[in-house]
Amino acid sequence: MTQRKRLGFWDIWNMSFGFLGIQFGFALQLGNTSRIFQTLHADVEDLAIFTIAAPVTGLIVQPIIGYLSDRTWHPKWGRRRPYFLIGALLATVSLVLMPNSPSLYIAIGMLWLMDTAFNVSMEPFRAFVGDKLPGDQRTAGYAMQSFFIGTGAVVASALPYLMTNQFGVSNTAPDGIVPDSVKYSFYIGALAFLLAVCWTVFRTKEYPPDDMEAHKAMRKATSGVFNAFKEIINGLGFMPKTMVQLAVVQFFSWFALFAMWIYTTPTVAQNIFLSNEPSSKEFQDGGDWVGLSFAVYNGVAAIVAFALPLLAKWTNRKTTHLICLTLGGIGLISIHYITDKYMLWAAMIGVGFAWASILAMPYAILIGSLPEKKLGFYVGVFNFFIVIPQIVAAGILGILLKSFYNNEASYALLIGGVSFFVAAALCVFIYDRDKYPSDPSIFKSH
Predict the structure, then answer these.
(1) Alpha helices (runs of H) in 133-240, residue ranges in sequence order
(2) Listed residue (207, 135, 152, 118) closest to 17, CA to CA
(3) What is the pLDDT of residues 286-333, one digit of tens each?
(4) How far apart are CA 393 and CA 257, in angstroms?
(5) How far apart are CA 7 and CA 222, in angstroms?
(6) Residue 385, Cα to own-chain centre: how many angstroms?
(7) Whose CA is closest to 114, among 85, 91, 83, 87?
(8) Considering only CA atoms, which of 36, 340, 294, 54 is closest in space to residue 176?
């Protein structure tokens, strides 16, 4: 087994930098998909089901990419980096095309392409930390990823607002047309995605397989998508104990996040900007404000990311996750009651704590319980418990709003907040067997 060297700050920076671009794309999608769909005449009760592309593509793509990347090796491009680059190229194209969709159903199709591309790039980044870093640096590695996710999302989420208020780009357009402020933001996001991922691809190297002949034999014997599906299904029955416990926590965490991403825009437009008409200036102003508010929670996450190793040292990793998810629940529930736009930022502080921890702590706990030769595969399987709750949310939230809450979107956020509380309570049962200390010198090589 290759001995993993402790890496310095800039080494961890370079291997994580691609997440800056990936989150540029995700933040633009999360902050603007509902806005684009409503502009193209989607009804509020249909938003969740129309955005099911994100969880479904994650369910299919990430385990397969994880399986295939475990079996990939190229002397120049390595194991994970080819997938970083392929995903980035596809994402760049889809980000340019998405806001130019001439109809709702074409926009939905572009969302499927976009999410597929995002997942091709993103999944190997999670396994990359396990490949490159020793156990006592993995919390720091995922914290660095959280920092770049937060930083990229801050800028991307704020872009439509900045385009309108700083650069004079119009945020209104004729009925059925996406405003230029959103279009230009997506173009910038496409470029940022490609450049950031290329930075990681060309500035990092990977460890070769310990036994090259054995690796070649495994690849030959188990290559192909059919074998990937077969092993994924079998792998679900043999998940480590810690992975099963984390899966339940992930389910309720991501159910809450999906509710927030889909229903914050109609909630803010209706409750704060007093409009539910997508072609109105007030509705589009509400969309811009949601983007700026999402920038707040991502900014908080970027800052909190570097505090997570210290908090984990004072307590432990599962207690850190419990605290952050509780703060997220408080923040999300409060949005249901807010009628002042600046108070929305206060709510997003709690969400930022939860988001920082969700991006780091489950993976830091998980990697230590997994067999090294199957890191990519199991990280891909673990993604089931990110996407399944989103599929469930997509299937039931719209029905609940229509049946019980008169299509008032803010009730979806109330349900999401309760889901965060459930996730926090379940953290108590996590067994963290890989209890590496959170060393204050965590980014220093020895």
Answers:
(1) 138-165, 180-203, 212-222, 225-236
(2) 152
(3) 988 998 898 899 889 888 988 888 888 888 889 999 999 999 999 999
(4) 10
(5) 32
(6) 13
(7) 91
(8) 36
Which is nearest to 261 in space by CA: 53, 20, 40, 18?
A: 53
SS3 167: coil
Q: Is the pLDDT of residue 120 over 80?
A: yes
Beta carbons within 10 angstroms of residue 100's beta carbon: 14
Q: Are 34 and 266 in contact (CB under 8 A)?
A: yes
- Which tokens is 329 given? 């629940």
* 334: enclosing H helix or E strand: helix 317-335
The structure tokens listed for 281 are: 């200036």
pLDDT in tens, 395-407: 899 889 888 988 8
Higher pLDDT: 65 or 216? It is 65
Torsion of CA 19, 353, 390, 279, to 10 degrees: -80
pLDDT tens for each residue of 200-226: 999 998 888 765 555 555 555 555 566
- Identify the CA nearest to 311 among candidates 319, 299, 302, 303: 319
- What confidence score (pLDDT) does residue 441 get? 41
